[in-house]
Amino acid sequence: MEGYLDCKILDENSKRHTLRGWSKHFTTLHTSELCLYKNYNDYVEKRDKPEEGPVEISNCLVSIEYRLKKPVFRLTCQNGKEYLFKADSNEDMLEWIGVIQKLNDNQSLCNSLIKRKADELLKTDNKLENNEELSKRTGKSSAGKIKEYKQEAEFTVNSHYDFPSFGSTIEKCIKCNINKLVPAVVAGCIREVEERGMSITVYRLSGNEKAIHSLINDIDKDPRAVDYKTPPWTDIHNTCAALKQYFRRLAEPLIPANLYPSFMDAAQLPELKERQQKLRILINQLPECHLATAKLLFGHLVNVAANAEINKMHTYNLAIIFGPTVIRSQNSDM
Fold first, then answer.
1. 77-99, pLDDT tens digit by residue?
2. CA distances from 36 to 14, 78, 231, 287, 330 (A)
């Protein structure tokens, strides 16, 4: 798992912490080691020399810091060193906690700590009850919000994400860590195809039906926990099929149905330059998540077509395969 987190390292003099003094780091969690880098480029260039770490998290305690009223969690190491991490949202925070717990030898101890902190807040933190701003913003009392956090913590303990990617919308899908607008399943599949499939005929074969069904189930549980290096993901045709299925099953296609007539009219323009200009304008009208996903997908297909002499996947072939899945009318039955 990778992504940006704000971090604060605690010492004996910083037990009473505030939201001051945070520093943003590109954070990685691979196998059971957590590393902090200044930024993504630093990670790429100095992967073996992190600014902080590696931190062995297999025997760490993880807990939610409700007192800060921010998506902050604490990591307490076996040697007594403590870290505070602040995520962009509660969803991101819970995801990091969930991954840490999967790799944690003291998982039962971590789970009980999270639940206990939630219970303590429900009984003692009466000040939050009068937080009118929070009530207005969420439509719930502060106590109700804490109960919601407790449910989220229990949800994380179960290490299961009930946000299916297939058949949902791009907006509702769990996003990847690097680009918060792109579904994790899209980023993951494309990465694997570009690493292992550019020299073979990708996207033309259908893959193994049983294997693809298994892959879809794995993705729907948690697309960011999928290990693409293990079977049946090792068969790149299965990965390609999963990506095609994702776009085919979207409740709202990549090119939204309300823009379908405009795209069809633009495609019929006789002059190439005029056609390109009109399509560029329409592309920029896509919803934010759709636009980011389209840029990634189309850029990937350009890379595939650039290797057409080897993989035999020319632009025309890719258009036949992906055209009906990324753009379709409202009455189209996929």
1. 777 778 888 888 877 787 788 77
2. 20, 18, 30, 33, 46
CB 240 within 8 A of CB 202: yes
The Cα–Cα gap between 190 and 183 comes to 11
Site of tokens 């630093």:
42
Which two structure tokens, joined as six digits, stand for 330? 């409202």
Q: How many CB atoms lie within 10 A of CB 293?
A: 25
CA 163 distance to own-chain centroid: 11
The DSSP symbol for 66 reads G
What does pTM read for this prediction?
A: 0.53
**What three-state secondary structure class fits 167?**
coil
What are the DSSP calls for 23-50, one per residue?
A: EEEEEEEETTEEEEESSHHHHHH-TTS-
When pLDDT is averaged across residues 251-280 and rounded to a whole number, the result is 92
Strands of 2-10's sheet, edge to edge? 52-56, 33-37, 23-30, 2-10, 82-86, 72-76, 61-64
Please state, in angstroms and rounded to a whole number, the distance separating the CA atoms of residues 107 and 104: 5
Name the pLDDT band for 331 (thresholds 50, 70, 90): low
Q: pLDDT tens-digit profile of 198-218?
A: 989 899 888 888 899 888 988
Distance of CA 99 to the CA centre of its chain: 13
Helix (H), strand (E) at residue 56: strand 52-56
The CA–CA distances, whole Å, from 234 to 201, 203, 242, 333 equal 15, 15, 13, 31
Strands 82-86 and 72-76: antiparallel
The structure tokens listed for 88 are: 């962009």
Closest CA to 115 of 85, 77, 81, 158: 158
